[in-house]
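Sample intake sheet
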Amino acid sequence: MAKMDHHVNSYLSDSDLVVLENLLHDVRLSTVHQDTDCGATHQASGARESDSDTVTRLMAMNDPTSPDFAPTVFVSWDDKDIHPFLNRHIVHPYARLASRIVRHPTDIVFFTHILMYLFVNLPSALYLFYNFSYLHGVLHTGFTFWCIGSFTLMMHNHIHNNGVLAKEWYWLDVLFPYVTEPLLGHTWHSYYFHHIKHHHIEGNGPYDLSSTIRYQRDDVMHFLHYVGRFIFLIWAELPIYFIRKNRPWLALQTSFWELSSYLFIYQMTCLHLQAGLFVFVLPFALLRLGLMIGNWGQHALVDEVDPDSDFRSSITLIDVPSNRFCFNDGYHTSHHLNPLRHWRDHPVHFVQSKEAYATGRALVFHNIDYLMMTITLLRKDYAHLADCLIPIGDQVGMSKAELAAMLRTKTRRFTEEDIKKKFRITATSNTRRWSSAKSNGGHLDILMMNLAAMLDSWYTD
């Protein structure tokens, strides 16, 4: 087995440090005791003890009745990083107040961010329209770009759980996205319709508009095709998808909110061109690009044998940006296994389910985020990915070269014939969408279906 130096980033979240310590303990045990039956028994016993201790520690962090309870107040700093005087007189009193406003006592950070967007981003944007300067515009867009990841994953929790604030604050929970979404690059409700009503239904399968399976996932031209298709065509393709699923009301809502967002951005740029560009257009472009880079990284490594498995079509990252700043988004397999799982529970679930992850041949990485995952794949640097892989299950006995070769097989493009076999698509199921549209949808649906066929042809050629 290859000897790998797994560098531990000290800026990992507390839960990530605990999980990574647990995984590296497993690797060390396996390295020392991989040959003998006695060693295997000792390894299993040691792993069980380590898992039990790890789960206990992680659950205590999430339990308000535990002395080890650690709510998340900020993304950049933990409690230990803040001066005791500030903690005692400012942070802790604020946390006690905010804990009554958020839905879960761990999630004070969501209220912190709502305040920041409403009292920093919004006033800054308004002032740009009142008295624009390029220095202010650049600083505003830079700060917005810094916020976009955290905001998007806060909204990710918002749309999966129908809000993030307590029921007494329902009015704010409902209203703040209408103000903040355009400021942070989002169009109204589009994230909900695409992510909840579409992506999680299809799960990176053949009918997922953001699926990676038809692309060679280490090819730059395929990546550019993927990004361009989403940026320029999603406004049409998502409503078409809902038409094909015989859900015309969702298609209508999706079109209304997407096009009304475009109209709003257009009107604001007409009101003040420079301010509109820096406040709305640039964040919109940056976010759409970021969403596709991130989704590519999340679903680029797809198992060639069982691509329909959540364990084998997504990955787990133990890293800084995805988990510290984006609310454990790195635990993407856990999220697909249960989209309603609370973000603070992902590390607990992962440790409790390590055997299932190992049996399912899941992929777990550290010290690499989704952006760098995408860039590393496009550079075809599988050796670096092998260095970042934390081996579990059968992977533990593999050399670095073997791990790199294994990872390379996970990026191969699926042909239409592969897709029919791997996803068990029959001619009947493939045409059912067409027949239902013809029988129920009338002329508009048939027109949309023809447009969909044209897009499919362009997509698969």
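Comment: The longest strand covers residues 315-318. Residues 72-184 form one domain.
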